[in-house]
Amino acid sequence: MPSAIGEPLDRVDGRAKVTGGAVYSAENNLPGMTYAVMVTSTIAKGRVASIDSAAARRAPGIIAVLTHESKLKLAKSPDDISPDSAADRRLQLLQNDRVLYAGQPVAVVVAETLEAAQEGARLAQVRYGPETPSVSVDASLAGAFIPERLSGAGDPGRSSRGDVQAGMSQASTRLEQVYTTPFQVHNPMEPHATVAVWDGPDGLTLYDATQGIFGARKRVAGLLGLAVENVRVLSPYVGGGFGSKGPTWSHVLLCAMAAREVRRPVKLVLARPQMFGPIGCRSETRQSIAIGAKPDGTLTALKNDVVTHTSSFDDFVEPASTPTRKLYSVPNNSTTQRVVRSDIGTPSYMRAPGEAPGTFALEVAMDELAYALTMDPLALRLKNYAEQDEDGQKPWSAKSLRECYRMGAERFGWAKRSPEPGSMRDGHTLIGWGLGTAMYPARRSPASARARLNRDGSIQVEAGTQEIGGGTYTTMTQIAADGIGVEPSRVIFRLGDTQFPPTPVSGGSMTTASTGSAVYLAARALRDTIIQRAVVDRNSLLYGAKPAQIAFENGRLSRSDRPGQMETIQHFAAGLGEPYIEAIVNAAPGQEKEEFSPMSFGAQFAEVRVDADLGQVFVSRMVGAFGAGRIINAKTARSNFMGGMVWGVSFALYEHAVYDERLGRIVNNNLAEYHVPVNADIGDIDVIWVDEADHHVDPIGAKGIGEIGITGSAAAVANAVFHATGKRVRDLPITLDKLL
Amino acid sequence: MKAFAYARPSTTDEAIATFSSSSGAKFLGGGTNLIDLMKMGVEQPSTLIDITRLPLATIEEHAGGIRIGAMVRNSTVAEHPLVRDRYPVLSQAILAGASPQLRNMATIGGNLMQRTRCSYFYDPTYAHCNKRLPGSGCDAIDGYNRMHAILGASDQCIATNPGDMAVALMALDARIQVLGPQGPRSRLAGDFFRLPGDTPNIDTNLRPGELITAVDLPPIDWATGGHYLKVRDRNSYAFALISVAAVVGLDSNGSIRRAQLALGGVAHMPWRVPDAERVLIGQTPGDGAFRDVAEALLKGAKPYAHNRFKVELVRRSIARALEAASTRA
Ligand SMILES: Cc1cc2nc3c(=O)[nH]c(=O)nc-3n(C[C@H](O)[C@H](O)[C@H](O)COP(=O)(O)OP(=O)(O)OC[C@H]3O[C@@H](n4cnc5c(N)ncnc54)[C@H](O)[C@@H]3O)c2cc1C
Ligand code: SF4
Question: Residue A371 pLDDT more than 80?
Fold first, then answer.
């Protein structure tokens, strides 16, 4: 049976995106629109002593200057977050004079034009009563605490099996090192943007750049005291989020509150520098790893003590210890996570929270161990291959890591590696090869979808979900097409509207498994309905057949027992008495998580070319081999893996939000100075995957691929740099000064 | 952004007169730096005098060298055959800067006048910056100063000139032609730029109201032995940590006959020490000679907390650039 799933179908929304037809949140222009600009704090801690807004109010075009003195009403405190919405953050909504981090909104200026609002924001004179901020781990270490739960999957704050001390004493080779990763900021291409329109005092529509329309609706409704069904959130296209558009941040509420005040639609778009602070970041991590091994490489003990930051007022714990818990087979294993409170905006989910920094430290430590044992780094990994999840004490739902190592190594040419550091040289250039293991859990949440056959033969499938760049329009179209038995071109998939069936946030790599399963089941249900109707329809050539005898392929229903007796879906639809028939399905995960540990894995290989004298690093080649369940679209999947791998390069070599610790401010808060790789920094990237059949995760066997690409890749690059230069850099990013 | 008036003169005299008649005017070239600074609120001109229509957009042979009009776009200069053939170091320097889109907009005059990228200068919400607010102090000296100067700085300001093209112009002894209310005048690149001293608010020796009209490259037939090395934190679209513009002429037995070199990323102006260059004359290109010239150029170097590496990086960069230039000489 021809299957759309797996095909490298072009993005169905590709044309709209490249021609400007796709309307992003900030591009909604409504009659009577006004423009809001946030004034953000320039101190990291203290109080707003006064805001002199007289000059701003006098400036042309200004409609309102909102401050904490405006006493804007909320239905509940923005600090009141429900424990069942892990993504809810405590917000800063002009309710008091406290300044908790640099970049916190302290006023909102609304004007007739964007330029007027900007000028008004500049003219608003904010005076502060500053206090000394703390943004460094060292300064706050004394007050560090171990949280009960880590963010993300909610794993415990510490873990232990066996006896690490005893394991270390059995080891012939021991390694103890500290690895640090810096603060990073998501920086999606599209800035966060909200357009708010009130329909009377009780109804609100938001056009919001969000990864979670339903989460946004709930948070906004709760804080503004509205019935959830009276809030509509639309987000048909999102220009990247990487986690930063998962939680509903302060600006969304401020936009809605401003619109309520001025009684007109308000558009609020963050300026790039405002994206460094109030909308989350990845916390710096400090990971102290200890490993012990026997002469043959068998691990006897493995330990990781992690320190990360959270804000002074909210809790987010970057779960960096989880790879250490699960990746290798080792009888004695312990991890702890400690958190310090800093005067920063609350850190948040950022592509592969936990696994990205966690695999960096662990996989560099394993590389160091391999050198200490004079063992091939790949052989060391295979020696300690975890046949089951020893942390969760469950079998993996499926694991193809061995195959990933094999395929990746073969494609990369790993066997030709000369192990000695600095042994591969080309003039001024030192060449190095490195390896890192990728892993990311497969998650699934409840989701629902609707599939509808219209009388004109078109098929309309809807689910709330969001398109954040991964290709959701396209993959859902393929899944729906296969589920029904029609060509993808016949399916129109719609998303990004809270009036569509509810779905989870586009995060945690779970869209395909969650929403995809719902779409698939809705499509199957529609297919069954069509078949059941056809066999009882006297006008149909299929009349009288048993449903089980009907094949439904390529838009044709045919009787398997009487070939040639068939009917097109077009014809069937035309005969419908009603305008459409539809199926709505609520899908949810079952008990599979109790029985299995669902996890994706991969192997990342990198080649770097390092200037021997000047220290400049270029990643000339990467191979990533992944085992991540069923791949829905070979083209979008490749792009997604590749994007993750590029981010791994960025993680290893470039990204660093630099705090001026005296002031508690990020000094490189723009894209000229906050470096991510440009084209000239990326060499050849080769993405391959194992055809993995995982029967335990969900009805379509998909595990999600949005995040795994960034895991293991930074370690591969860092290990390649060591192989090239003999210099072990444990503190990211690896800038050239660290290699001089 | 503060509201401003806009004028678009068609002659240089008109441009100068417009400037004189309005207080707080600014010339607008490609706008790639000025508009940015206006958005940030660092620059707040009352009038923008758009000079891109002035008849100053040609490249021609002049007095044995070439003359580049101030309105010529950066990409046009970099790709011009006269520049590429005779002054490859200039072409390379321009192409090492910014991005193709920016170079298509940026003018030669604007490029010379681009302001420092010091974070504390660029954002007026930082309280202490003598360059932006004379007498307010300097947030960079004890702050984040990875990109900052190691040579010629003062206790008032440690900012660097961020430009690439200027480094090549310095090495080539280019002459900047300007026109002011008092008529035309010209300055060597070395006299055009300045060190911060006690007045870091003044970037260059161009007087208010003076318009850059052209850049003259002198007739040096040995400039073909040129190389521009830019060391930076990523391979494109990043300002120089260190850059070196080197021009080397060899005699028939392979010894260095002439050498001129300037450094970028180290000071408030492209850094050149003609005395240091003399160390190279008569030497065979090689590490010994290169190290000596580096030490001479680095005399008095004073790094800060985040840019200590620059001192060693200068040594290595000079060696690499001179090696490359000598190979081409
Ligand atoms: C993201 C980014 C990255 C960059 N990277 C680099 C880099 O790596 N290397 C590099 O060298 N540069 C870099 N640049 C800077 C770029 O080279 C400058 O912005 C550009 O050269 C300025 O030229 P312009 O014509 O746009 O000047 P404008 O912005 O128009 O003007 C700049 C200044 O020059 C004055 N001015 C303009 N023309 C004249 C004239 N004829 N006479 C007198 N005054 C004049 C203006 O009044 C203004 O003060 C970068 C810029 C950006 C935005
Ligand atoms: S280095 Fe110069 S430009 Fe930077 S803050 Fe100090 S005075 Fe201002």
Answer: yes
The Cα A500–Cα A466 span in angstroms is 11
Element containing residue A260 per DSSP (H, E): helix A250-262
Has residue B247 been placed in a domain?
yes
Number of domains in chain B: 2
Q: ipTM > 0.90?
A: yes
Looking at residue B177, what is its pLDDT? 98
Enumerate the H helices of chain B as residue ranges. 12-21, 34-40, 74-79, 81-86, 88-95, 100-105, 108-113, 119-122, 165-171, 189-192, 274-278, 287-297, 309-328
Residue B17 located in a structural domain:
yes
Q: Which residues line ligand 2 (CB under 6 A)?
A: B 116, 118, 120-121, 129-131, 138-140, 157-159, 200
Q: Is B254 exposed, middle or buried (0-12, 13-18, 19+ CB in 10 A)?
A: exposed
Nearest one of A656, A657, A643 to A707, comparing CA atoms: A643
Contacts 24+ apart (CB under 8 A), B94-99: B94/B164, B94/B165, B94/B168, B96/B164, B96/B228, B96/B230, B96/B240, B96/B243, B97/B163, B97/B164, B97/B165, B98/B32, B98/B74, B98/B237, B99/B236, B99/B237
Q: What is the mean pLDDT of chain A?
A: 96
Ligand number nearest CA of B24 is 1
Architecture of domain A158-184+281-443+594-738: 2-Layer Sandwich (3.30)
Cis omega (within 30 of 0) for bond into A733:
yes
Chain B residues close to A122, C-beta within 8 Å: 2, 41
Closest CA to A80 of A68, A67, A90: A90
Q: How far is CA B100 from CA B76, B227, B232, B253, in A?
A: 11, 20, 17, 40
Ligand 1 pocket check for B70: Cβ under 6 Å? yes
Residue B85 forms contact with A (CB below 8 Å): no
- What is the least distance, in Å, from the CA of A641 to any CA of chain B? 22
Atom of ligand 2 nearest to the CA of B149: 1
The protein residue whose alpha carbon is closest to atom 8 in ligand 2 is B129
User: Is domain A32-132+190-239+245-275 classified as CATH 3.30.450.20?
Assistant: no
Structure tokens at A341: 């409170």
Indicate where chain A has its CATH 3.90.1170.50 domain(s).
32-132+190-239+245-275
E strands of A221-277, at which residues? Answer: 231-234, 266-269
Q: For B270-274, what is the mean pLDDT?
A: 97
Residue B179 lies in a domain: no
Residues in chain B within 8 Å Cβ distance of A736: 231, 233, 241, 309, 313
CA distance A175 to A188: 38
List pLDDT tens digits, range A540-584: 889 999 999 999 999 999 998 888 889 999 999 999 999 999 999
Residue located nearest, by CA, to atom 6 of ligand 1? B98
* Domain boundaries for CATH 3.30.365.10 within chain A: 158-184+281-443+594-738, 445-588
Is B316 touching A (CB cutoff 8 A)? yes
B323 touches chain A (CB under 8 A): no
Mean pLDDT over B227-236 rounds to: 97
Q: Domain of residue B269: give its range.
A: 225-327
